[in-house]
Structure formats: C-alpha cells, structure tokens
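ok new one. same drill as before - structure tokens go in, u give me an amino acid for every spot. 149 of them this time. try not to just spam alanines like last time pls lmao
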C-alpha cells in the first residue's frame, strides 16, 4: 500500500498541501495513450493529473498528515471540508469538459499529435474519477496517521 504525505499549515490561514504521492498511471488503453502524448508534449500537466488520480483513489493509500499539533478529529474535519471543496470544483470541471469534448473530437482526425483531444480527454477522465470518488469517500474511513512535524 502506497503512502501519501499531507501537510496542514498552522492557523490562521490553514492550507492543505500534498507533499508526496504516487506518479500517474492507468489501466485503460486510451488513457495511457493520452498520458504518453502529454508526457511528450506537456510534461508539466502530469503532476496535476497525478493529483487528480490521487483524489480518485484516496481510500487506497496510507495518509500521513503533518498537522502541527492538531488532533486527529480536527484533521479529519479539515480534510472533510477540503474534500467537499475539491468535489464541487471537480463537478464544475467535468461539466465544462463535457461541453468542450465534442468540439475537440474534430481536431483528433487531423494528422500530427492530437494533444488537444487527448489532453482534454485525459483531464475529463481524471476529473470525473476524482469527482465520483470524492462523492463516495467518508473521511472517517480514511487511513490517516498523524506524522511528526
């Protein structure tokens, strides 16, 4: 089981920051092709997509939280609010990408690297998976351990 490291900055202005998480991969052929195209032409996007995949599979990881003196109950409450904000944002992204995807499909038939279609498809896929997973996750069921600061 892989480990994810999260840091929650002290109050005021608490912020949650993901420090360490696994690299992007997928079992789907079309998604892997999209990842390969993005890796070749836009490598900076892969870190963002790795975060989306992490959100989609959060219950599968051991989550080590560096919270600066917060109790586990406070950490779980803060992560619950954070996940709710992420879920709403992913819903907005999914709707927007669903509206744009039919227009980029026409670009996919052109010769050359189809970064526009594959890039948007991969973004849609990972945003959708993250949204669905964040809708099902219960913070109480996450494998959270408080790490040392």
């Amino acid at each position: 089981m892989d480990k994810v490291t999260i840091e929650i900055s002290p109050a005021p202005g608490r912020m949650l920051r993901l420090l360490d998480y696994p690299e992007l991969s997928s079992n789907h052929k079309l998604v892997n092709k999209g990842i390969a195209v993005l890796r070749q032409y836009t490598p900076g996007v892969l870190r963002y997509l790795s975060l989306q995949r992490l959100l989609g599979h959060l219950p599968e990881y051991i989550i080590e939280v560096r919270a600066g003196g917060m109790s586990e109950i406070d950490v779980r409450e803060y992560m619950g609010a954070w996940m709710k904000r992420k879920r709403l944002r992913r819903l907005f992204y999914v709707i927007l990408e669903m509206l744009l995807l039919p227009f980029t499909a026409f670009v996919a038939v052109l010769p050359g690297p189809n970064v526009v279609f594959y890039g948007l498809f991969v973004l849609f896929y990972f945003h959708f998976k993250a949204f669905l997973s964040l809708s099902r996750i219960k913070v109480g069921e996450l494998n959270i351990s408080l790490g040392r600061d």
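The beta strands are 3-8, 16-20, 62-66, 143-146. and btw The first helix runs from residue 29 to 41.
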